[in-house]
Amino acid sequence: MKNHEIDYKIYGDDMQFVEIELDPNETVVSEAGSLMMMDEQIQMETIFGDGSGGSGGMMGKLFGAGKRMLTGESLFMTTFTNIGHGKRHVSFASPYPGKIVPMDLNQLGGKIICQKDAFLAAAKGVSVGIEFQRKIGAGFFGGEGFIMQKLEGDGMAFVHAGGTIHKKELLPGQVLKVDTGCLVAMTSNVDYNIEMVKGIKTALFGGEGLFFATLRGPGTVWIQSLPFSRLASRVFAAAPQAGGQNRGEGSVLGGVFRMLDGD
Fold this sequence. Notes:
Distance between the termini: 42 Å
Structural class: alpha+beta
Strand content: 35-45%
Low-confidence stretches: 247-253
Radius of gyration: 20 Å
CATH topology: Double-stranded beta-helix
Number of helices: 5
CATH architecture: 4-Layer Sandwich
Shape: globular
């Protein structure tokens, strides 16, 4: 195994954080801004690229950083290394209410495809890259854009999502239809596509958006009950607007906004 083997413990219920235990010289990689706390003798360093620690030289790092930029993430990631002699701990917090899901890539085929803002942290050696959708419809109307994130390696990775997370095992040929914003992650063998809601009345007045994702097994999928975009739209709809106006949950305009947002 090329990845660092790390131990962890998840705390909390609705606003969780993960505490990772590092042996001497072990390293964990995270997105910038996710650190909650760390022990002394943990060395923090900003790196350029995807965090895999490969030996591709400067061009490889530039390519890895460029891939991350396409997903809307920072060009840089942060590593935390235990430079002491005993065990040390570093903790990372979820940025909004929801759950942190630990994923052992060694038991999941070495690759996970997830929404672009789901990654929280991983053992050093896990590559954080991009996954181009093969089907143009899935790319343009999938709720997460043409590009999704992929985590590759054989170590532990941690992703976060909103609300309650439901893990579902799909049998060969089994199809699951999901709101596009509710898909968190899936194993690489799941076939992913986008379908338009049938019926003009359902599409325009159903309040569920114009598209949904179809996931065909075999494979494993993770579904979230509260996408951040849905939470943000509810907060925005309830907040006073300029001039004292409010879009309102019951207004016709509010319904149009929800239809366009896929919520």
